[in-house]
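Quick note —
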Amino acid sequence: MDTRVVMSSLLGGVVGGLGSMALWCLWKHNKQSKIVRLHTADPRASSVVVHNGVVRLSGQVGVIANLGTSDLEQQVKETLVKIENLLADVGTDKSRILEARIWLKDIKTDFAAMNAIWNSWVDPNCKGVRYCVESALARETLLVEIQVVAAL
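Predicted structure written out below.
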């Protein structure tokens, strides 16, 4: 067989393969991944956003109607129930938590009590990373806010 024919065939195969790979890469990288937003009644934010297998919850607080009369324990427990329900809405649970962010109104007074409740609630075999800080919260009667990121 003529070497020119062999080289031409080889070159044509390489160019065709590279062209196909380039088209596949363009298609793959330009394809937008799906974003799911749930509980969107709040004018500022969705309560849940799911993207690429990661669930992000907005900051959650206790039952608003109870804020004037609830103590830290009640607010933390109500907040954790809300988090469990939101995670369940997208088919996951607290064992899939990747990260938790906790804001306390008064960390000196409430840190130990909040930790006791958190420790009894969190899955001991599947703990995500967590941080807890003191912060002024959106309402005077709010004592705690918790935001969670989880895997599906």
